[in-house]
Amino acid sequence: AGLLTTINPGDSTTNVVIPRISLPFDVKKTKLDELAGAGYVMFQQKTRGATVVSGELATNINSDYDYVSTTIIVASVIETIREVADPYIGRGLTEATTAALNTAIESAMNLKVTQGAVVKFGFSVLTNTTINGKGSLSIPITIIPPFELREVNVSMKLALDI
Question: How many Cβ atoms are within 10 Å of 73's Cβ, its own excluded?
Fold first, then answer.
């Protein structure tokens, strides 16, 4: 449905309404959850329209990339670092260049935090050994994504008076 191209980093396809479609039949909630957990894109009819049941992906049980939201965030962060680093390619590999790149990446990642795409991050700009006149850098980065809200629990107690 092209939905993935419209999702902002930090958001998911879970519970998003798909406009202008109707579902030919209803599937029980238990089956919807099982199929979505297996990586199938499932829809359910709600009062506001046909909605995506879950942004889960068909991944290995030990994968960090179980949800569409995580994949979108990771792709966005990698693309941002590549864009920020691009102007530095071809420049002399000096301490000043490394420090400037470090500052540029930190600014770009702080913007990601402000936008809500990342909660917290840590990174380093590491100079690799120059081989045959070819310099290179490594940028290991760790992020904490805004984990997807998956359920809301409600508890109720009846009383004669509060």
Answer: 23
Quote the CA–CA distance of 71 and 40 in Å, as a whole number: 16
At 101 the three-state DSSP class reads: helix
Token code pair at residue 28: 């029980």
pTM: 0.70
Q: Are 76 and 13 in contact (CB under 8 A)?
A: no
- Length of the chain, in residues: 162
**What pLDDT tens digit does each residue of the chain (162 aa) get?**
567 677 777 777 777 888 888 888 888 888 888 887 777 788 888 888 888 877 776 667 776 667 777 888 888 999 999 999 999 998 888 899 999 999 999 999 999 999 988 999 999 999 888 888 788 899 999 998 887 666 778 888 888 888
CB 92 within 8 A of CB 113: no
Spell out the residues 6+ positions from residue 76 whose beta carbon is closer than 8 angstroms to its own.
Answer: 9, 112, 117
Q: Give the 3-state secondary structure of residue 67.
A: strand
The C-alpha atoms of residue 51 and residue 9 are separated, in whole angstroms, by 19
